[in-house]
Design goal:
single chain; about 300 residues; alpha/beta; Histone, subunit A
């Protein structure tokens, strides 16, 4: 019996994952699961680079704008929902495509989640209070001191991720990173990782162009509509946070846009740091012909052993 295969398209932001994922899904007549946690929320569109209507209509997509920013939805919730959906899709498809820039969410589907110690709610409350008083910088510095390895990998501009890592560090009195990559239960499908790569100048150039395009498409107006919700976890992310600073009168618009570009470049660097630890990735060029990539994927599928 043929094995079931998940093709996970990964890579830094703005590199072309959406386009390649659609091409792969069309070639294999299958569907796409999005593992981009920023694209879960229906109120956030421009700043999260949600696929266009044409792209969404090209093949069936799942986990795109299915939540509200007011909803509570964890990576554990996503893992449970995505694995359940995969089970259904694999009943009629031999191949399903996973697309996403959120390394934690991709790993949750492919590998399962690591187990962490219970955390006293008082620790979390103290960290949240510290964030309100001292801002991001204090959390960033403490994580660098307690767990420099994870500090290199995590999106340090995301307070929710920083607080989660620090509460585990404090509760367990050991680095958060020491709990990662534990042995987990096996999945009932094979996974082929396809990573899109380019040199740093290309990646940074594409990021700068995307941010300019987002501003032209109305990102500031989108941020204005969401401003009253600026303290929600979903909005603690690059592209919105910087514009909220501008709307608070703390910066100029030009500075806010330059900060979006800078912080997005930093995010891309951390995405690559996360991905480089995965030696199973089939790396392809951002400008490589789709036909060539599809041939490589097909060959890799043929050489993968059947799921037992």
């Amino acid at each position: 019996m043929n094995s079931k295969t998940l093709v996970a398209v990964v890579g830094p932001t703005a590199i072309g994952k959406t386009k390649l994922g659609i091409s792969i899904a069309q070639h294999f007549n299958t569907e796409i699961i999005s593992a981009d946690s920023r694209q879960f929320f229906k109120e956030m569109h421009i700043g999260t680079a949600v696929p266009s209507k044409e792209e969404l209509n090209a093949v069936p997509h799942h986990f795109i704008q299915h939540l509200s920013i007011t909803d509570t939805y964890s990576v554990g919730d996503f893992e449970k929902d995505a694995v359940a959906l995969l089970k259904m899709l694999f009943e009629k498809k031999d191949i399903v495509v996973l697309v996403g820039g959120s390394g934690l969410y991709v790993d949750a589907v492919v590998l399962g989640l690591d187990e962490f110690p219970d955390v006293d709610s008082k620790i979390r409350e103290d960290l949240n209070q510290r964030f309100k008083q001292d801002g991001l910088k204090g959390l960033q510095e403490e994580l660098l001191k307690r767990d420099p390895k994870y500090h290199e990998m995590v999106d340090v501009d995301n307070p929710h991720r920083l607080i989660r890592a620090l509460e585990v560090c404090i509760a367990a009195n050991r680095p958060y990173s020491s709990f990662l990559n534990q042995k987990k239960e096996s999945r009932e499908f094979n996974t082929i990782y396809v990573g899109i790569q380019a040199n740093r100048e290309i990646i940074y150039g594409r990021i700068n162009q995307r941010v300019d395009a987002m501003m032209e498409a109305g990102l500031l107006q989108e941020a204005e509509r969401l401003y009253r919700h600026k303290n929600l976890n979903a909005l603690q992310t690059v592209g919105y946070r910087e514009l909220f600073e501008y709307l608070d009168g703390k910066s100029t618009l030009d500075f806010a846009v330059s900060e979006i570009k800078k912080n997005t470049r930093r995010f891309a660097k951390r995405q690559l740091t996360w991905l480089r630890k995965n030696k199973a990735i089939l790396w392809v060029g951002y400008d490589e012909k789709t036909e060539s990539i599809l041939e490589k994927i097909t060959e890799r599928i043929k050489t993968e052993p059947d799921v037992q």
